[in-house]
Amino acid sequence: MRTLLLLDNGSRRAESTVMLRRLATQLAARCGEAVLPVSLLHSDQVPVAQLDGQAAATLAPTLRQLCAAGQRDFVLIPLFFGASRALTEFIPTTAAEVAADSGHFHWQLAPTLCPLPAGEPLLVDIMAAQVADAAAALGSLTPRVVLVDHGSPVPAVTAVRQWISTQLAQRLGMTVAQAVMERRAGAAYDFNGMLLEEWLQQQAAVDAITPVIVALLFVAAGRHAGANGDLATLIARVTAQHPGWRVVMTPLVGSHPLLVDILQRRIPAPA
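^ thats the sequence. predicted structure below, dont judge the formating
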């Protein structure tokens, strides 16, 4: 009998684990199988008191515990937009280390949230709906839109943001810019694009009146996204320099009900 693990990268913020658990519960109800919420790293550092007394689970200890209980068939469902090194390197290395201790087991990594080249139209649906809601809340002014993700040194991950940006622009009938929260220095990483703060300052120099919607390509709260994250701090810092300029963020992707539809599509049929 197989075991389904819903995987995120992990965060020291309790909100991230809470969302992961909620998504796992919703996915289990949808697919009719148990789904375990598991982080790759970090979440085991969240105080248990912030998680209703239940410690967060991380990948290596969870695999060891399940193997010790006799389970040997795992499907790993990634809450990742693209094929980051967490998926291509960390998970295979961790699985090999656990197998060396616990004996052979079979594991299968399901597709990412936006596998290219086909992409995922439902992600575009989510982003378009969230941008439309933000625009309606701003009023009659036509906003500028920038799609922002964490940033990655892996071109395949950046390609996902580029694909979504292109599709979103077509859906909305307007230009959708792109920016990142982190990028490595040097021309070799120019494919990542501009840092969000640089992009905002550039826009403000031209027009600090037309509002901006920062479309968040983040599943859950973490260091950047979420209340009191780097994004909120950055936007507050920039807008303080330009009184009256409105810069608003869309909700997290993980808060939208269509994400569970995407996850359900990623679960392979039982062998």
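Strands lie at 3-8, 35-39, 73-78, 106-109, 144-149, 176-180, 212-216, 247-249.
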